[in-house]
Every structure is written in C-alpha cells, then in structure tokens.
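User: New here, any thoughts?
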Amino acid sequence: MEKTKASVTPYRWVVLAVYMLITAISQIMWMTFAPIARDAAAVYTNGNINYIDFLAILAMLGWLPFCIPAAWCIDKFGLKWGAGIGVILLGMGGFLRIFAPNYGWLLACMVACAIAQPFVLNAFTKLASNWFPENEEALASGLLTMSMFVGFTTVMFATDFILAHYRKIGAIKQGIDVILYVYGIPALVGMILYFIFVKDKPKLPPNPIAAEKKVSMTVGLKSLFRNKDFLYLLGLFFVGVGAFNAILTKIDCIFKDRALDIDSTLAPGIVGGMIVIGGIGGAVILSALSDKYHKRKVFLLLAAGMAVPLTMLLQYLSSIVFLGICGFLFGFFLISALPIGLTYAVEKTHPVPEATSNGILMLSGQISGLPIVVFFNMTLITVLYGIAFLLALLMKEIKSPDDKLI
C-alpha cells in the first residue's frame, strides 16, 4: 500500500498562534486573583482570603477528575472539538466573571475555567503532531509552553498594576471590575477566534506519525504502562514537574530568615521572575535545538542534571545577582524539559493517541506537586532531581520515526 504523502502548510502557524493565545488566557484565568487576594477578599468574602486562594487551587484540583476524560475527548473528537470543549468553558467562564455579583457566581465561573485546563493543555502534542513536521514538533510544544508563562507573567504584573490606581482612590471594587473586563473580553474573543481559525488537521499529514491510525485510548493506556521508556519518563515528570511547581509555590520559604545582600522580602519576586524569564527562553531555544538534532534524551538529562546543583545553590547563596542567575538557568533548563518530554512520549509510544500520553504525564506532575508543597524541603527536592537524572539515564534515545510500541 502506498504511504500517504506528507505535506507542510504555512497555515500551521495560524493555528499555533491562536492556540498560544488560548493557552495564555487559560493561565490568566486561574491566576487572576493571586496577586490581589486581600483586595478580592474584601470585595467578595468579607476579608476571608482562604476562599480567594481556593479559586487558584481549583485549577490543580480540576486535573484529578477531568484529565483522563479530557484526553479521551481530544482523542475521540479531534483537536478542534475535543480541546474546543475547554475553549468554550474558558471563554464563557472568563467572560461571565465580569457580571459576578457575589462569590458564588465567581466560584461557578472559576470552576468552568478549572475544568477547561486539562482540555486546553492536554492538546499540545495533538496540535504539534497534527500540524507540524518532525523537525518542528518540539518547537511547537515549546512555543505553547512559553505562552503558558507569558500568561502567568502577564497576570502577575498587570493585575496589581491596574489595581494600584484604584487603591489610591479607595475604589477597589471598581478596580477589580476593570480587571475582569480586561481579562474577560479577550477570553471571549479568543474563543471566537479559535472556532474561526483552528482546524482539526490539514488535508495532508505533515509527518509519518500524523498519517497513522491511532489505537483506542483503552489500548493506548495499557500500552503506555508496558513501555519502559514511558514509565521512566513518567517518573521524571512526577518528580520534575511536581518539584518545579512546589518551588514556585513556596519560593517565599526558600529565602525566609536568610542573610542576603538585599532585603530578603524582595528575593522571591526577583528570583521567581528570573525563573519565568529563563523558562520562556529555554522553552523555545532548547526545543528548537532538540528538533534540529532530533535528540530528546540528552536535553532531559541536561534539565535534571542542572537542577541538582542549581537547587543546592538556591539554598545557600547570599548574593542576589548569583541567585538571579541561578533562577534564570533553573527556568531555562527545567521548563524546556516539558515540551521536549511530551514530544519524546509521542514519538516513543505512537500509535497511542497523543492526548493520552500528554494527559498522563501532565497529571503525574499535578499529583506530585501537592505532597511536595505540603512537605516542602529544598534538600529533599535536590535529592528528587538526582533520582530524576538517574531515570533519564535509563531512557533510550529516539532513533527513528519507526520506533513503535505497538
């Protein structure tokens, strides 16, 4: 039988650009109130900050029941309509927050945005595989990962900046209303753009994997857990993503009561900002290099290997300059491991559906993040990254597109 001819269309960049917008919005939605928790509590919960913090925690909790159903929908209905479920929830939930008269309404909208997360983020490798050639797949996933952190950075800086003026004039409620409009209207516009411009796949597949018929999700799940390389990668994600999320969540604790050459209260913001900036660069640069040389393992080894000394240095350095450099390098190498690892999973496990492997890996990082946060200890995290490095050593490099599991 003659193989389907591969073809690459420039329209792939349109699809990617729109999906990057949706991804950034997804991060803006769930982090909206994190920088202004006290102000939001004064407006919605009579000063109870725990209720406001719960709005952000919802996004992590949403992964537990909805990750597998989201992956099934993406595999069953394709990129446009499978991920489209999340886009609708995100667009409508984000827009309807504008009209929230009380906490109950706001909570319902945030639940919709939380459910949307796995539908949107589980489709990264589906989009990359459907639209991009092999030498651009990790780059596509890297750009999508970058857009997550662009959204995160936007909400952390813009939210407080907008509200600052309204704090001065004692109009907190009006300021929060403006913030909800500023974020809610792009959420609705993003949803509309998605259904206008995003297509499931091009007429001709851009790579051999996209041309293959995928197995069912049930068969795919069984196959994943028989694949040693995937299990090593799963352990890598379980440790690496969970520990990374814990460091960002508890970054305040790292510098508490430490003698630094600046005010210690400023260190978490500076180092955290450098981690995000480094991650945005690494997600693009290292993903592109991974595609160019068609190597995945070496970059995963580099990420886990660099994490060991960097987490040690973050514990003991006293110079903010060197701490900032360490933060930048930590983000640069660690965040790039996400798209490269997701791409490795697709290449190692096809014809298992892309969203299935993507979803299981993302879920593992969400699950591990909770106990690592609760029992947060930087020395333990250094040890965990050492274990991740050993797991990466056990993995086999991708040799060719024909390296199949089934």
Remarks:
- Residues 12-197 form a domain with the Growth Hormone; Chain: A; fold (CATH 1.20.1250.20).
- The radius of gyration is 21 Å.
- The CA atoms of residues 312 and 382 lie 7 Å apart.
- Confidence is low (pLDDT under 50) at residues 401-406.
